Request: fold
Amino acid sequence: MTSSKKKEKYDLILDAALKVFAEHGFHRSQVAKIAREAGVADGTIYLYFKRKEDILICLFREQLGRLLQLAHDAIQDITDVKQALRTICEIHYTHLENNVDLAFVTQIELRQSSLELRKEIGIAFKPYIELVENVLHKGIEQNVFRPDLNVKLVRLLILGAIDEVVTSWLISGQKYSLAAQVDGTVNFFLQGIDQ
Amino acid sequence: MTSSKKKEKYDLILDAALKVFAEHGFHRSQVAKIAREAGVADGTIYLYFKRKEDILICLFREQLGRLLQLAHDAIQDITDVKQALRTICEIHYTHLENNVDLAFVTQIELRQSSLELRKEIGIAFKPYIELVENVLHKGIEQNVFRPDLNVKLVRLLILGAIDEVVTSWLISGQKYSLAAQVDGTVNFFLQGIDQ
Amino acid sequence: MTSSKKKEKYDLILDAALKVFAEHGFHRSQVAKIAREAGVADGTIYLYFKRKEDILICLFREQLGRLLQLAHDAIQDITDVKQALRTICEIHYTHLENNVDLAFVTQIELRQSSLELRKEIGIAFKPYIELVENVLHKGIEQNVFRPDLNVKLVRLLILGAIDEVVTSWLISGQKYSLAAQVDGTVNFFLQGIDQ
Amino acid sequence: MTSSKKKEKYDLILDAALKVFAEHGFHRSQVAKIAREAGVADGTIYLYFKRKEDILICLFREQLGRLLQLAHDAIQDITDVKQALRTICEIHYTHLENNVDLAFVTQIELRQSSLELRKEIGIAFKPYIELVENVLHKGIEQNVFRPDLNVKLVRLLILGAIDEVVTSWLISGQKYSLAAQVDGTVNFFLQGIDQ
DNA sequence: AATGAATGAGGGTTCATTCAT
DNA sequence: TATGAATGAACCCTCATTCAT
Reply:
């Protein structure tokens, strides 16, 4: 009972933080504002999080975990690596398009943080990196992807490219469909721009 | 004479800012520290820049201008669009590898800014975008690149991919050569990962 | 039974407080820390003490009571007032030397309190004051001490002098024997510094 | 000019701090309150003092310096060591009686500080200690004071005794004359209480 | 143009105390 | 009696910006 309540309040705060961060940005979001939004006292925040930055980190971990789970489950039964890559991209775009608040936090606010925090984020991001690298490795083994690929570099290129598309879509004011970019994106990944 | 002095001091401040931002990050760089580094009084900064963020914007414009000029000059006489793309990527990587301070400011510090600032930065970034898009358009016209390319999307994908490679190299502690990634990067852009 | 348990817990808390106050100082000693040391819940503290300062006051009362009892018992059968004074001083120094935690609390932490608290402390200190004044009065009656003594003033001088010796010994890091100062102290009280 | 203004503001703040500390105590005195009393902005305080505690230390140094100067000047031409001791005591009592705010700060507020701060205070107090010890040494040399005196111990006893008299006078509400205690105090120091 | 002293708004965090259970 | 989760008031200090000189 107590633990369920604790869980509830923990989530209450994270939900409130997501909303407040998305609206005002990390630096402009006072802890007091998050507390008010969550319906708890300022001090209560500090029963669940060590400091303000921790809220951001936990929020990211939690949310990235869901995205990862979605992607993981979706490619579980897919043997076609090209299709797997497409699915990852599709889920990535779709999930962020359906969760604009989350998109703002990951694409904009999360970058406004100290180098130390970015390293923390990097660690949390590891499983997602591995998901992509696994697909690449499998593709090379299956002779579907070119054997001379530098997997780490290609992974950077793919995730950097995806990231920029999402950020650009956000900054533009979400005036077009993000999910509609999947085909163009994946074709680029697979065939490049050369004739 | 006066204007030349003004020019001098303006540059003095920007040079100081680049150094200080790179060392301490934007938020940890007090205006007073930049002033001391530049050898001027705190108040003098405000004769040349409206506010602290302006220093960052101007610094970015100035430096991006140089990179743009380098790239522009280098592809001037190149008719082979593939080679042009390679040259842009090569200059981008090489220039940032040779100017780590600049790299830190553009890849890390510049992101730690408000949405408004990022829009400003976007505007300054326009000419670089056009440079890349021009190459893409030319390549399509020449039937070297695929005719169905969504140029804006591909440009995002290319610049996002490059950006991530640079950031990752920085965060890793510049433990390997950035310029050595040109081949892998451009091959990916041209042929993708498909066999 | 209940009252005995209460007594037990009351003492448990005071013992914990003495330890925690001595180690961290009054202001740096959170109520939570005392509670943990005592093995009770935070809220339980408030069943026995009105507020944090009360713990300090009660602790002082309790401990001073013991010192007073020791001194009182020791001079009970002493008719020589000079010897009585020496005994009081000896017990004071010895007791604090043997209870450094207590010394820290009385000499350092107790002073870090509001004027109001110091008045409370003054009241608790009354019996000790009377003990000393009684010896002085008796000495005057017996024509052992000078008849023109201002008893209240002399009592202040004596206790102030003793207090400073103890504090200085503490701050010095207890590098010498406090009890060894009894002779020098009492000689000063009795004969002054004049040849 | 500038330095004279700086001096002025420095003193303005110290004067304000003395008043505010005396009235509300150190811990209850917000920096903002001192600033308002001094007629400067909050931030200005920090142009002259590193932190709140520094104000207290500087205040003490400044004021103790004056008291020391007074005592030093007064005993300059006195060859009679007994008279010198009397003069020191007289000036101490008189000065604090004439500067009740100062008395509150030195006797009450200054004690409510961390052990570290008390060490700082101890250093500032050194010259005063030496003043007293010099008189004691001289008295022993002149065969006026007993040759077997433990000078350091006696100095502690004397200053401790004086200190307690002042504090007691303060806590009592200054209902009697402090200066009137000089005779009783000095007689005690010289002859003790023995017949 | 240049100075640099002065300004003052702004917020994360602690912790004594309460109260529902 | 006992718990301990929740409360929320309280405050020092930084630093971007201004302005009198």
In short: Chain D touches chain C through 46 residues (CB under 8 Å).
